[in-house]
């Protein structure tokens, strides 16, 4: 189980992780056997939770179970999904089930098992700021320890030679709907909170789902299955021109390999920006099985004659919205292809409008004088997932690493679970200056450019890194 908070100390740690989502949990799991690495990870939430509002019964993650926290970097690790099954005496049932893609709820439970058993994880610790102390040649990480009610209990400071940011994403709410989400009354909620409101949504008069990606499809299907036949009263709209299946061909999936990540990183900034926008169907489409299940359920409801009271309309964007008294919401919508506008009334809205990277500016404000930025004022990130900082910081071998906030430099695979273990291994190899996790030199059959990008070598340390002895309780 997690050890109690360690007292502040002036001795710098080797690594402080900020955030405990799948990315930093992967890093912590792969760092665990490196006995001389003194690392601690801080998270303001009371425990590990992975999109709890979207753990809909039957919903599956869109990557194979091999894309767990560690397997693609170290299949012998004790923190693999298969070892989780073995520990819980579920390996044979899983073998018989023949499921390559596991349920989302099971992935969440697996990650919580890892989080509950790894040392060095500090939940209820909110990191407030990161500063560079040039005199001591270390980073200062200021944090607030929270009590069981989420209130401030104590403040502290940790000194560290390296920092890794893994603060993840946050729900995105379009501006026209933000005032409705913040106001009480008729439910307007992000899909991230869907399960907490599911019972009331199943009994609401008319429900609108906004968003044509995977989350929107899963919420619509769950509502459809749970509402009475002939009285479904459901509307599903989205901006995309069709309810489009995700690109899932074998060669298409090679865009989620380290080979493509290296190729993408070497491209010019304007080309990278154009590609991220153009490749939406590789990661924002809908699983073909989910689309089939929706059609099957709609078709089943026509067997006794008539059509279900469900409207599915792509190519629609919400322009503005407002409340009508206390029981309805009015959506002002526009059909993009027809160039027509209309007003829709509904009793509840679920916003399946996705997630966006949490801004790094607040937590990195203390490092702003040392940050190097691109032409769009975004942090520059090198091939080893390190922020490009002023040489006065990095010359001493001190670095800030980034997890799941590098799409602009590393491509659409940045948030993909299948690349988490490889990225964590890359970070640990670069941080220690050792080949702790030998990484493959080639991972795809596709040659993405005429000039091949090779696996980056472990950077030579400007100053040999000395790992401090592992302290008790960490």
Structural class: alpha/beta
**What separation lies between the terminal Cα atoms?**
12 Å
DSSP helix fraction: 25-40%
- Number of DSSP-assigned strands: 18
How confident overall, as mean pLDDT? 92
The percentage of residues in β strands lies in: 15-25%
Which ranges are low-confidence, i.e. pLDDT below 50, for 5 or more consecutive residues? 1-8, 468-474
User: Describe the biggest sheet?
Assistant: 5 strands, parallel
Radius of gyration based on Cα positions = 24 Å
Count of DSSP H/I helices:
14
The shape is globular
Q: Order of strands across the biggest sheet?
A: 3-2-1-7-18
What does this structure look like?
Helix content is 26%, strand content 20%. The chain is of the alpha/beta class. The protein has a 5-stranded parallel β-sheet, covered by helices on one side. Strands 9-16-10-11-12 form a 5-stranded parallel β-sheet, covered by helices on one side. It has a 3-stranded antiparallel β-sheet with strand order 4-5-6, with no helix packed on it. Helix 1 (22-31) links the parallel strand 1 (15-18) and strand 2.
């Amino acid at each position: 189980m997690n050890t109690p908070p360690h007292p502040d100390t002036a001795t710098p740690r080797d690594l402080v992780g900020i955030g405990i989502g799948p990315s930093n949990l992967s890093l912590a799991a792969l760092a665990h056997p490196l006995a001389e690495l003194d690392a601690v990870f801080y998270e303001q939430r009371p425990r590990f939770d992975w999109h709890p509002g979207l753990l809909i019964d039957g919903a599956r993650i869109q990557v194979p179970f091999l894309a767990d926290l560690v397997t693609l970097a170290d299949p012998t690790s004790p923190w693999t999904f298969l070892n989780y099954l073995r520990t819980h005496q579920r390996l044979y049932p899983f073998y018989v089930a023949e499921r390559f893609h596991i349920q989302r709820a099971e992935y969440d439970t697996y990650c919580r098992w890892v989080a509950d058993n790894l040392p060095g994880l500090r939940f209820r610790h909110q990191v407030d700021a990161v500063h560079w102390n040039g005199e001591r040649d270390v980073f200062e990480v200021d944090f607030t320890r929270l009590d069981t009610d989420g209130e401030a209990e104590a403040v502290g400071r940790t000194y560290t030679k390296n920092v890794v940011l893994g603060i993840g994403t946050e729900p995105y709410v379009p501006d026209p709907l933000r005032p409705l989400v913040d106001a009480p009354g008729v439910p307007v909620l992000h899909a991230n909170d869907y399960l907490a409101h599911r019972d009331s949504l199943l009994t609401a008069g008319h429900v609108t789902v906004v968003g044509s990606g995977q989350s929107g499809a899963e919420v619509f299907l769950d509502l459809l299955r749970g509402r009475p036949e002939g009285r479904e009263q459901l509307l599903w709209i989205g901006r995309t021109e069709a309810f489009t299946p995700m690109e899932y061909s074998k060669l298409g999936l090679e865009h989620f390999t380290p080979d493509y990540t290296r190729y993408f990183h070497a491209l010019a900034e304007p080309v990278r920006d154009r590609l991220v926008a153009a490749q939406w169907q590789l990661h924002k489409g809908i699983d073909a099985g989910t689309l089939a299940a929706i059609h099957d359920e709609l078709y089943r409801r026509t067997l006794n004659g008539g059509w279900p009271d469900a409207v599915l309309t792509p190519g629609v964007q919400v322009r503005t919205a407002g409340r009508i008294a206390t029981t309805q919401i009015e959506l002002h919508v526009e059909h993009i292809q027809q160039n027509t506008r209309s007003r829709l009334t509904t009793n509840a809205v679920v916003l399946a409008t996705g997630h966006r990277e949490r801004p790094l500016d607040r937590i990195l404000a203390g490092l702003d004088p040392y940050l190097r930025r691109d032409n769009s004022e975004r942090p520059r990130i090198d091939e080893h997932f390190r922020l490009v900082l002023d040489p006065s910081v990095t010359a001493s071998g001190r670095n800030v690493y980034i997890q799941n906030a590098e799409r602009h430099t590393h491509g659409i695979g940045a948030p993909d679970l299948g690349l988490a273990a490889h990225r964590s291994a890359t970070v640990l190899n670069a941080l220690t200056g050792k080949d702790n996790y030998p990484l493959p030199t080639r991972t795809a059959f596709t040659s993405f450019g005429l000039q091949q990008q090779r696996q980056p070598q472990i950077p030579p340390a400007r100053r040999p890194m000395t790992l401090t002895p592992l302290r008790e309780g960490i």
